[in-house]
Amino acid sequence: MKTNPLRSVLTHLLLLTGAFISAMPFLWMVTTSLKPAGVLYQAPLLIPTYFEWSNYVEAWKAAPFPRFFLNSAIMTIGITLGQTLFSAMAGYAFARLRFPGRDVLFFLILGTMMIPFPVTLIPSFLIIADLGWLDTYQALIVPRVVSAFAIFLFRQFFLSIPQELEEAALIDGANRVVIFARIILPLSTPVMAASAIFSFLFAWNDFLWPLIVTNSTEMRPIQVGLAFFQGQYGIFWTLLMAATVLATIPAILAFLVAQQRFIEGITSSGLKG
Amino acid sequence: MTLSRPQVHNEGRAKRPTFMRTFKNLPIALFFLLPTVVILGTFNFYPALYSLYLSFFEWNGVSPKRPFVGLDNYQRLFSSSEFWNSLQVTVIYAAAMTVAALALGMIVAVLLNQDIRGRALYRALYFLPVITPTVAAGVVWKYLFDPSQGVINRFLAGSGITGPSWLTDPSWALVAIVIVGVWKRVGFNMVVYLAALQGVPRIYYEAAQLDGASPWQRFRFVTLPLLAPSTFFLTVTALIDAFQVFDLVYVMTQGGPLKSTDVIGYYLYRYGFRYYELGFASAIAYVMFALIFVVTLIQFRLSRGGAQGEN
Fold first, then answer.
1. Which residue in chain A has the smallest CA separation from B52?
2. Chain-chain contact of B36 with A109 (C-beta, under 8 angstroms)
3. Is the CB of B207 inside 8 Å of chain A's CB atoms?
4. Looking at beta carbons, which residues of chain A come within 8 Å of B241?
5. By the CB < 8 Å criterion, does B223 face chain A?
6. CATH for A145
7. Measured between CB atoms, which of B12, B126, B292 is closest to A18?
8. Calpha distance A195→A265 (Å, rounded)
């Protein structure tokens, strides 16, 4: 098909309009975060012309943001490591081992993706309270170290690895755990990266569960901290936007680093489903 | 993000080993599956059942007294105008957000599925809102919707339109939340549609063109049917997510003004974690569960009907 120049211009016009709407909130957020409070309402609204970096310092000091970041970092690392390792293990069992009830169990695990989170919310909260875990890192991490979606990703990947690799090792007398650790995991870096980026973004962006299981300011992850900060500093637009930029940057960086893997993960799960 | 529910492959079916042999694998399988089974059991399966159980009791979470009340919580729910309002708000949000994000996602994907400059950049820009933390997005949009100084109303004023008060106007607050929901969803739909479009053989379009099909006809009779499986997947996942919307409402409106954005997720949160009516909140949760289940079931039915029609 020949490309008609008029059509090409029209396409770009439409795409640019959409891209502008997509990007506009980010432009405004960054521009506002860098303005002196006195010129807040003055144009330009979407292009930074002032660079009041002290807003970031002030926001950083106005609430325990270093602590919020630390909490989010601990929670995110814990969840990401847990989901990657445990999902790889489970995915391996489903891909390679024949055992009674395997298919039923796999189906049940995928079925958990159909349970809306709010349905499990209250009992999960009660369990955490009974364990005495309210307001702890365990509460933020442990209930979420398993991901049915990641198990599915790993299983699909393992099914694509030829069995012969393992059969040789099995004949030599290696056991499954050794094979998993020495042969399978080293081959799995692409799927580990895909799974890890999903886990990272899930954990960094998560809100409802941390909102419910943390009571003290010191235990809040960044998103919860930001929501409360908005309540207190809502009238200080510049500070609030500086804080919002800080809460957003890790998610954007993670996405930029692993964009390709992330999109492959979505499309493969969406299409083969 | 909720993703697919893929089918179980039964690659072990062809030459089924003896029961004894499979039994031998049980200890090692247990080792690999132990963390998964313990965590999902404790924080998914058990809670899903326990919240059904709780919905038959009246309980504040700490009191030693926990009277069994039968179906009272459900009765109270169904006779409460608050619940029906919440249901209506949720259904409007889910339907509007899903349909708009599907249409826009498809348009963007079709536009991007051409040989054009800057494709990767466009794709990244459209996808950015998807990975942005919902809380952060809600905070920013809350200010974009500011009636007097927000970017949106200032832009509208520039075009000679007086914008509404958005988040403080009961008839506009939900519209604002839908706009943010769509903004955050389009990129995801676009990526899935784009992948599906790239799998469509060029020859289909060439054949249609030879038959004299107009660009619209090619879209309507080639692209659209071929995208049907993706549309199905995206509709189901969007509806499931939309029925649970919470973060945006919490940050932007707290359910107001006048309960005009009191979506079911927020309604449940209020009763569970502000008023500590755990039994009643569990009944809300189960109605939500049933609703999502029914919607998904209808979708499956419709898609099966559609697939038969095309074959």
1. A119
2. yes
3. no
4. none
5. no
6. 1.10.3720.10
7. B126
8. 8
Query: How many structural domains are present in chain A?
Result: 1
Whether residue B3 and residue A266 make contact (CB cut-off 8 A), yes or no, is yes
Tens-place pLDDT, residues B140-168: 999 999 998 899 999 999 999 998 999 99
Which amino acid is it at B130?
Answer: V
To the nearest 10°, the Cα dihedral for B186, B187, B190, B192?
-110
- Residue A271: closest C-alpha in chain B: B230
Work out how many CB contacts closer than 8 A connect A with B: 300
User: Residues A218, A136: contact at Cβ < 8 Å?
Assistant: no
ipTM of the complex: 0.91
How far apart CA A200 and CA A251 sit, in angstroms, is 8
| Angle in degrees, CA B260, B237, A220, rounded to 5 | 65
What span, in angstroms and rounded, lies between the C-alpha atoms of A194 and A197? 5
Q: Is residue A52 part of a domain?
A: no
Residue from B195, B182, B164, B165 nearest B242 by CA: B182
Q: Is A72 on the interface with B (CB under 8 A)?
A: no
The one-letter code for the residue type at A273 is G
Chain B residue numbers touching A31 (CB-CB < 8 A)? none
Identity (one letter) of the amino acid at A133? Answer: W
- Each residue of B264-283: pLDDT tens digit? 999 999 999 999 999 999 99
Q: Which two tokens stand for residue A181?
A: 């650790």
The CATH number of the domain where B139 resides is what?
1.10.3720.10
Average of per-residue pLDDT values in chain B: 88
Report the Cα B184 to chain-centroid distance in Å. Answer: 11
Cis amide leading into A143 (omega within 30): no
Residue B38, in any domain of the structure? no
Nearest neighbour of A18 by CB, restricted to B33, B40, B108 = B108
Pairwise CA distance, residues B236 & B301, whole Å:
12
Type of residue found at A98:
R
- Residue B21 counted as domain residue: no
Angle of helix B228-243 versus helix B278-310 axis, rounded to 10: 170
Write out the two tokens for B99: 């349909």
